[in-house]
Amino acid sequence: MTIKEVEARTGLSRSNVRYYEKEELIAPSRNERNGYRDYSEKDVENIKKIAYLRTLGISIEDIRDVISEKKALYEVIGHQNEILKDQILEFKKAKAMCEKMLNEESLSYEKLQVERYTEELQDYWNENRPVFRQDSVSFLYIWGSPLIWAAITVLCLLVGILSYPKLPAKIPVQWSNGEATSLADKKWIFIYPVVCIVIRYLLKPFIYVKLQMKKYYGEIITEYLTNYLCFIALSAEVFSVLFVFQVVRSIAAVLAVDTAVLLGLLAVGLIKMDLRGKGM
User: Where are the bilayer-spanning segments (predicted)?
Assistant: First the structure.
Protein backbone atom coordinates (compact mmCIF):
# COMPACT_ATOMS: atom_id res chain seq x y z
CA MET A 1 0.00 0.00 0.00
CA THR A 2 1.06 3.61 -0.53
CA ILE A 3 2.06 6.05 2.19
CA LYS A 4 -1.23 7.87 1.65
CA GLU A 5 -3.06 4.66 2.50
CA VAL A 6 -0.81 4.19 5.54
CA GLU A 7 -1.78 7.70 6.70
CA ALA A 8 -5.45 6.77 6.40
CA ARG A 9 -5.00 3.45 8.19
CA THR A 10 -2.91 4.74 11.08
CA GLY A 11 -4.11 8.34 11.47
CA LEU A 12 -0.48 9.48 11.50
CA SER A 13 1.18 11.95 9.17
CA ARG A 14 3.63 10.84 6.50
CA SER A 15 6.38 12.79 8.24
CA ASN A 16 5.96 10.48 11.24
CA VAL A 17 6.05 7.42 9.01
CA ARG A 18 9.13 8.69 7.16
CA TYR A 19 10.83 9.42 10.48
CA TYR A 20 10.27 5.88 11.74
CA GLU A 21 11.67 4.59 8.46
CA LYS A 22 14.67 6.92 8.72
CA GLU A 23 15.33 5.57 12.22
CA GLU A 24 15.19 2.05 10.73
CA LEU A 25 12.25 1.01 12.89
CA ILE A 26 10.37 -0.07 9.75
CA ALA A 27 11.71 -1.15 6.37
CA PRO A 28 9.00 -1.18 3.67
CA SER A 29 9.74 -2.95 0.41
CA ARG A 30 9.97 -1.19 -2.96
CA ASN A 31 7.58 -1.61 -5.86
CA GLU A 32 9.70 -3.03 -8.69
CA ARG A 33 7.63 -1.25 -11.37
CA ASN A 34 7.88 2.33 -10.10
CA GLY A 35 10.38 2.22 -7.23
CA TYR A 36 7.86 3.60 -4.71
CA ARG A 37 7.63 2.27 -1.16
CA ASP A 38 5.14 -0.54 -0.75
CA TYR A 39 3.94 -0.81 2.84
CA SER A 40 2.62 -4.13 4.12
CA GLU A 41 0.01 -4.92 6.75
CA LYS A 42 2.88 -5.75 9.11
CA ASP A 43 4.42 -2.31 8.47
CA VAL A 44 1.11 -0.67 9.38
CA GLU A 45 0.87 -2.66 12.61
CA ASN A 46 4.49 -1.84 13.48
CA ILE A 47 3.90 1.87 12.84
CA LYS A 48 0.93 1.85 15.22
CA LYS A 49 2.96 -0.01 17.88
CA ILE A 50 5.88 2.40 17.55
CA ALA A 51 3.63 5.46 17.74
CA TYR A 52 1.82 4.07 20.78
CA LEU A 53 5.09 3.39 22.63
CA ARG A 54 6.26 6.92 21.79
CA THR A 55 3.11 8.31 23.48
CA LEU A 56 4.26 6.52 26.64
CA GLY A 57 7.56 8.36 26.49
CA ILE A 58 9.60 5.37 25.29
CA SER A 59 12.71 6.53 23.44
CA ILE A 60 13.44 5.64 19.82
CA GLU A 61 16.57 3.82 21.00
CA ASP A 62 14.60 1.62 23.39
CA ILE A 63 11.97 0.87 20.75
CA ARG A 64 14.74 -0.11 18.33
CA ASP A 65 16.20 -2.43 20.97
CA VAL A 66 12.79 -4.02 21.57
CA ILE A 67 12.23 -4.60 17.84
CA SER A 68 15.71 -6.12 17.45
CA GLU A 69 15.06 -8.20 20.61
CA LYS A 70 18.02 -6.70 22.45
CA LYS A 71 15.58 -5.75 25.22
CA ALA A 72 12.29 -7.22 26.31
CA LEU A 73 9.22 -4.99 26.06
CA TYR A 74 8.34 -5.84 29.66
CA GLU A 75 11.74 -4.55 30.82
CA VAL A 76 11.43 -1.31 28.85
CA ILE A 77 7.88 -0.63 30.05
CA GLY A 78 8.93 -1.35 33.63
CA HIS A 79 11.79 1.13 33.39
CA GLN A 80 9.52 3.78 31.88
CA ASN A 81 6.98 3.18 34.61
CA GLU A 82 9.61 4.00 37.25
CA ILE A 83 10.56 7.17 35.36
CA LEU A 84 6.93 8.24 35.22
CA LYS A 85 6.51 7.58 38.95
CA ASP A 86 9.39 9.96 39.66
CA GLN A 87 7.95 12.55 37.28
CA ILE A 88 4.50 12.28 38.86
CA LEU A 89 6.04 12.83 42.28
CA GLU A 90 7.83 15.93 41.01
CA PHE A 91 4.64 17.20 39.37
CA LYS A 92 2.71 16.68 42.61
CA LYS A 93 5.32 18.69 44.51
CA ALA A 94 5.15 21.47 41.95
CA LYS A 95 1.34 21.41 42.02
CA ALA A 96 1.29 21.64 45.82
CA MET A 97 3.69 24.58 45.62
CA CYS A 98 1.47 26.35 43.08
CA GLU A 99 -1.62 25.81 45.22
CA LYS A 100 0.19 27.17 48.27
CA MET A 101 1.14 30.27 46.31
CA LEU A 102 -2.39 30.71 44.97
CA ASN A 103 -3.73 30.73 48.54
CA GLU A 104 -1.78 33.90 49.25
CA GLU A 105 -3.91 37.01 49.54
CA SER A 106 -1.63 38.99 47.30
CA LEU A 107 0.58 37.22 44.79
CA SER A 108 2.91 39.23 42.57
CA TYR A 109 6.41 38.96 41.22
CA GLU A 110 7.54 41.98 43.22
CA LYS A 111 6.35 40.48 46.52
CA LEU A 112 7.46 36.91 45.78
CA GLN A 113 9.82 35.60 48.50
CA VAL A 114 11.22 32.22 47.48
CA GLU A 115 12.38 31.36 51.00
CA ARG A 116 8.75 31.29 52.20
CA TYR A 117 8.10 28.21 50.05
CA THR A 118 11.31 26.26 50.62
CA GLU A 119 12.80 25.03 53.87
CA GLU A 120 16.41 24.84 52.66
CA LEU A 121 17.08 26.84 49.50
CA GLN A 122 20.25 24.99 48.48
CA ASP A 123 18.58 21.60 48.95
CA TYR A 124 15.71 22.80 46.78
CA TRP A 125 18.11 23.87 44.02
CA ASN A 126 19.83 20.48 44.20
CA GLU A 127 16.52 18.63 43.89
CA ASN A 128 15.74 20.59 40.73
CA ARG A 129 19.18 20.29 39.16
CA PRO A 130 17.82 18.79 35.88
CA VAL A 131 15.89 22.00 35.25
CA PHE A 132 19.00 24.11 35.64
CA ARG A 133 20.95 21.84 33.29
CA GLN A 134 18.34 22.62 30.63
CA ASP A 135 18.40 26.33 31.45
CA SER A 136 22.17 26.63 31.25
CA VAL A 137 23.73 28.12 28.14
CA SER A 138 24.75 25.19 25.96
CA PHE A 139 27.95 24.87 23.99
CA LEU A 140 25.92 25.36 20.80
CA TYR A 141 25.03 28.92 21.80
CA ILE A 142 28.48 29.70 23.17
CA TRP A 143 30.27 28.37 20.10
CA GLY A 144 27.88 30.19 17.75
CA SER A 145 28.50 33.60 19.29
CA PRO A 146 30.26 36.45 17.45
CA LEU A 147 32.66 36.64 20.40
CA ILE A 148 33.99 33.17 19.61
CA TRP A 149 34.48 34.16 15.97
CA ALA A 150 36.36 37.27 17.05
CA ALA A 151 38.52 35.20 19.42
CA ILE A 152 39.40 32.71 16.68
CA THR A 153 40.22 35.50 14.23
CA VAL A 154 42.45 37.26 16.78
CA LEU A 155 44.19 33.97 17.57
CA CYS A 156 44.85 33.45 13.86
CA LEU A 157 46.39 36.90 13.70
CA LEU A 158 48.48 36.36 16.85
CA VAL A 159 49.80 33.01 15.63
CA GLY A 160 50.87 34.71 12.40
CA ILE A 161 52.54 37.65 14.16
CA LEU A 162 54.38 35.51 16.72
CA SER A 163 55.55 32.85 14.30
CA TYR A 164 56.43 35.10 11.33
CA PRO A 165 59.98 36.08 12.43
CA LYS A 166 60.94 32.43 12.98
CA LEU A 167 59.47 31.02 9.77
CA PRO A 168 61.64 30.24 6.73
CA ALA A 169 61.19 32.28 3.54
CA LYS A 170 58.90 29.61 2.12
CA ILE A 171 56.28 27.70 4.11
CA PRO A 172 54.17 24.67 3.13
CA VAL A 173 50.54 25.33 2.24
CA GLN A 174 49.67 21.86 0.95
CA TRP A 175 50.67 18.46 2.32
CA SER A 176 50.41 14.83 1.35
CA ASN A 177 51.50 11.78 3.32
CA GLY A 178 53.50 13.88 5.75
CA GLU A 179 55.36 15.79 3.02
CA ALA A 180 54.98 19.37 1.78
CA THR A 181 53.66 19.41 -1.82
CA SER A 182 53.31 23.16 -2.29
CA LEU A 183 55.22 26.12 -0.85
CA ALA A 184 54.38 29.83 -0.62
CA ASP A 185 55.93 33.00 0.73
CA LYS A 186 55.83 33.07 4.51
CA LYS A 187 53.48 36.07 4.34
CA TRP A 188 50.89 33.46 3.47
CA ILE A 189 50.62 32.81 7.22
CA PHE A 190 48.48 35.97 7.44
CA ILE A 191 45.91 34.60 5.00
CA TYR A 192 44.23 32.66 7.80
CA PRO A 193 42.72 35.63 9.71
CA VAL A 194 41.63 37.00 6.31
CA VAL A 195 39.92 33.67 5.62
CA CYS A 196 38.02 34.02 8.91
CA ILE A 197 36.72 37.43 7.84
CA VAL A 198 35.73 36.12 4.40
CA ILE A 199 33.92 33.16 5.96
CA ARG A 200 31.86 35.34 8.27
CA TYR A 201 30.95 38.18 5.94
CA LEU A 202 30.79 36.46 2.55
CA LEU A 203 30.27 32.74 3.13
CA LYS A 204 27.93 32.92 6.14
CA PRO A 205 24.88 34.30 4.20
CA PHE A 206 25.38 31.57 1.57
CA ILE A 207 25.46 28.87 4.26
CA TYR A 208 22.21 30.17 5.80
CA VAL A 209 20.39 30.09 2.47
CA LYS A 210 21.63 26.57 1.70
CA LEU A 211 20.55 25.19 5.06
CA GLN A 212 16.86 25.75 4.26
CA MET A 213 15.85 24.95 7.84
CA LYS A 214 13.52 26.51 10.37
CA LYS A 215 14.62 30.05 11.08
CA TYR A 216 15.37 29.21 14.72
CA TYR A 217 17.71 26.33 13.97
CA GLY A 218 19.00 27.85 10.72
CA GLU A 219 20.45 30.93 12.36
CA ILE A 220 22.05 29.03 15.23
CA ILE A 221 23.56 26.31 13.07
CA THR A 222 24.77 28.86 10.51
CA GLU A 223 26.67 30.63 13.28
CA TYR A 224 28.00 27.29 14.51
CA LEU A 225 29.24 26.22 11.06
CA THR A 226 30.74 29.66 10.40
CA ASN A 227 32.82 29.49 13.56
CA TYR A 228 33.65 25.85 12.90
CA LEU A 229 35.11 26.73 9.47
CA CYS A 230 37.13 29.51 11.11
CA PHE A 231 38.33 26.99 13.68
CA ILE A 232 39.46 24.74 10.82
CA ALA A 233 41.41 27.70 9.42
CA LEU A 234 43.05 28.22 12.83
CA SER A 235 43.91 24.50 13.03
CA ALA A 236 45.43 24.59 9.56
CA GLU A 237 47.49 27.66 10.49
CA VAL A 238 48.79 26.08 13.70
CA PHE A 239 49.55 22.88 11.81
CA SER A 240 51.54 24.85 9.20
CA VAL A 241 53.73 26.33 11.91
CA LEU A 242 54.19 23.01 13.71
CA PHE A 243 54.91 21.27 10.41
CA VAL A 244 57.69 23.73 9.61
CA PHE A 245 59.35 22.92 12.92
CA GLN A 246 58.71 19.18 12.40
CA VAL A 247 56.51 18.83 15.48
CA VAL A 248 53.62 17.15 13.60
CA ARG A 249 53.40 15.60 10.12
CA SER A 250 49.73 14.77 9.38
CA ILE A 251 46.97 17.38 9.21
CA ALA A 252 44.34 14.71 8.62
CA ALA A 253 44.54 13.56 12.23
CA VAL A 254 44.22 17.14 13.50
CA LEU A 255 41.16 17.86 11.35
CA ALA A 256 39.57 14.50 12.18
CA VAL A 257 39.78 15.23 15.91
CA ASP A 258 38.43 18.76 15.37
CA THR A 259 35.49 17.42 13.39
CA ALA A 260 34.68 14.59 15.81
CA VAL A 261 34.70 16.87 18.86
CA LEU A 262 32.71 19.68 17.30
CA LEU A 263 30.11 17.42 15.67
CA GLY A 264 29.66 15.62 18.95
CA LEU A 265 29.11 18.89 20.78
CA LEU A 266 26.72 20.04 18.04
CA ALA A 267 24.68 16.89 18.54
CA VAL A 268 24.58 17.43 22.30
CA GLY A 269 23.53 21.05 21.79
CA LEU A 270 20.71 20.12 19.40
CA ILE A 271 19.43 17.37 21.68
CA LYS A 272 19.40 19.82 24.55
CA MET A 273 17.47 22.33 22.45
CA ASP A 274 14.92 19.65 21.53
CA LEU A 275 14.47 18.67 25.18
CA ARG A 276 14.03 22.31 26.15
CA GLY A 277 11.49 22.76 23.36
CA LYS A 278 9.48 19.76 24.60
CA GLY A 279 9.47 21.16 28.14
CA MET A 280 11.31 18.15 29.53
Answer: 139-167, 187-203, 224-245, 251-271
